[in-house]
Write a structure and sequence with these properties.
The complex is a heterodimer of chains A (about 70) and B (about 260).
Chain A lengths: L1 E4 L2 E4 L6 H6 L8 E5 L2 E3 L14 E9 L2
Parallel strand pairs in A: 1-5
Antiparallel strand pairs in A: 1-2, 3-4, 3-5
Chain B lengths: L4 E3 L2 E2 L2 E3 L2 E3 L3 E3 L7 H11 L3 E8 L8 H8 L2 E4 L7 H15 L3 E4 L12 H13 L3 E6 L3 H9 L6 E2 L13 H10 L5 E3 L5 H9 L4 E4 L1 H4 L4 H21 L18
Parallel strand pairs in B: 5-12, 6-7, 8-9, 9-10, 11-12
Antiparallel strand pairs in B: 1-2, 3-4
Helix pairs in contact in B: 1-2, 1-9, 3-4, 5-6, 7-9
The chains are: A mainly beta (about 70), B alpha/beta (about 260).
Organism (chain A): Planotetraspora phitsanulokensis
Protein name (chain A): Thiamine biosynthesis protein ThiS
InterPro entries (chain A): Beta-grasp_dom_sf (IPR012675), Mopterin_synth/thiamin_S_b (IPR016155), Thi_S (IPR010035), ThiS/MoaD-like (IPR003749)
Chain lengths: ~70, ~260
């Protein structure tokens, strides 16, 4: 299954979850938030939310700014 | 102590979003050359609230601004910097709430990259949606008294008019409008953006602003820690002067010594 994570194409096994997508980038679970196709997926739902082909996954964290 | 003692034993506090703060200097974190420099500047500033931006996680980055803020016990205020539409800003605020476990947001919706001036239409739209979603909304706006009033009516916890464009260091270009905003506001007014040096921060407080938010003036100064200390003193001095009540300006002299009599 091909999805886009933070702008890059990533191949994940079918039935992959949001949690698995996050772990391609980081092992951190705090200070991180995820949106799939423009909707926030709360941390408690990461392991139960399955991705679909061509999903757009954004994984964000806080950086210096403002 | 970073506050002003109004009367003996009675300290001046800032009430914002249902919380109380002693410092009236809110810091940004953008522009600091390193996290060590940032940490020292935050320490010197005495700040209790500091902004961060939300960006794509970079697996290669080392150290986090969040670790610095946690270590210092500073409240994290996520912003929506970089957003051009209400929709982007609302999503960014929701992601920040999820990542940082705060419902506070500095709402920033810009109109173009060259001026970074806030878009009033998108900002107002986003503010309404975020207030309805339970956020404590602190909107960055132009120095527009009418918009400030409308955002207050929409339920924003403060209004944050600019002194001048972000990072310009041009100071407060329209002090009259800032005074007008202060006069009619029922929520805190936080002067945000444009501060170049300590006298600008003092002026903001003398005009009646409740707090000042700045970043570049400190983080891009030749000596950030020293400028942070200067800003802390300026905000405190300006606040004290505002409470003390300045003398009216006069066209001619008024003698401060008694007249000589024959």
């Amino acid at each position: 299954m091909k999805v886009t994570i933070n702008g890059g194409a990533v191949e994940l096994p079918g039935e992959a979850t949001v949690g698995e997508a996050v772990r391609t980038l980081t092992a951190m679970t705090s200070g991180v938030a995820v949106a799939v196709n423009g909707e926030v997926v709360s941390r408690s739902a990461w392991e139960s939310t399955r991705l679909s082909e061509s999903d757009l996954v954004e994984v964000l964290t806080a950086v210096q700014g403002g | 102590m970073d506050g002003v003692e109004v009367e003996a034993g009675m300290e001046d506090v800032l009430s914002l979003g249902g919380e109380k703060f002693t410092s009236r200097l809110i810091m940004g974190t953008g522009g600091a050359p390193s996290l060590d420099v940032l940490e020292q500047a935050l320490e010197e500033s005495g700040t209790e609230i500091t902004t961060v931006a939300m960006r794509r996680l970079d697996p290669a980055s080392r150290g986090s601004v969040l670790d610095v803020l946690r270590r210092k016990g500073i409240k994290v205020l996520p912003n929506t910097a970089g957003c051009f539409t209400a929709g982007e800003a609302v999503l960014t605020a929701r992601l920040a709430r999820e990542a940082l476990e705060t419902n506070w947001v500095k709402l920033e919706v810009i109109s173009d990259e060259r001026t970074l001036l806030p878009d009033p239409i998108e900002t107002f739209d986003a503010a309404e949606r975020l207030v309805a979603d339970g956020f404590v909304v602190l909107p960055y706006i132009g120095d527009d008294p009418a918009l400030a009033r409308r955002l207050e009516q929409a339920g924003c916890a403060a209004v944050m008019p600019l002194g001048a464009p972000i990072g310009s260091g041009l100071g407060i270009r329209n002090p009259h409008n800032i005074e007008l905003i202060v006069e009619s506001a029922g929520v805190p007014v936080i002067l945000d953006a444009g501060i170049g040096t300590a006298s600008d921060a003092a002026l903001a407080m003398e005009l009646g602003c409740d707090a000042v938010l700045l970043a570049s003036a400190v983080t891009r100064a030749q000596r950030p820690g020293l400028m942070a200390a200067a800003m802390r003193h300026a905000v405190t001095a300006g606040r004290a002067a505002r409470i003390a009540g300045r003398i009216p300006m006069r066209r001619y002299a008024e003698a401060s010594s008694p007249a000589l009599t024959a």
